[in-house]
Amino acid sequence: MATLTLIGKPDCHLCDVAREVVETVVAELPEDAVEVEELSIADDPALYATWWEKIPVVLIDGELHGHWRVSPDRLRAALDAAR
């Protein structure tokens, strides 16, 4: 099982778009293929210090996949490779 982490913050339009892309791509995969966790830079000073200017950020198995805009095709390919 791959773990996808979406790092964002409340009231972030790009974060909302990224969440929709993640939800759409993950819904296409088998039910237990990907665990999705969502973290907010508003709740964690360390996350804020690291990512505040790059949100939304997507990590796959703890490794940076991308930030700002999430491509469904690129995310799909990365999740397939991670599984």
Shape: globular
Number of DSSP strands?
A: 4
Low-confidence segments: none
What structural class do helix, strand and pairing data support? alpha+beta
Backbone CA Rg: 12 Å
Arithmetic mean pLDDT:
97
End-to-end gap: 6 Å
Give the strand order, joined by hyphens, for the main sheet.
2-1-3-4
Order of helices and strands: EHEHEEH
Number of helices: 3
Note the main sheet: 4 strands, mixed
Measured as a percent range, the helix fraction is 25-40%
Strand content: 25-35%
What do you see in this structure?
The model has no long low-confidence stretch (mean pLDDT 97). With 83 residues, the chain is an alpha+beta fold. It has three helices and four strands, in the order βαβαββα. A four-stranded mixed beta sheet has the order 2-1-3-4, with helices on both faces. The chain is globular. α1 links the parallel β1 and β2 (34-40). This is Glutaredoxin family protein. It holds the Pfam family Glrx-like.
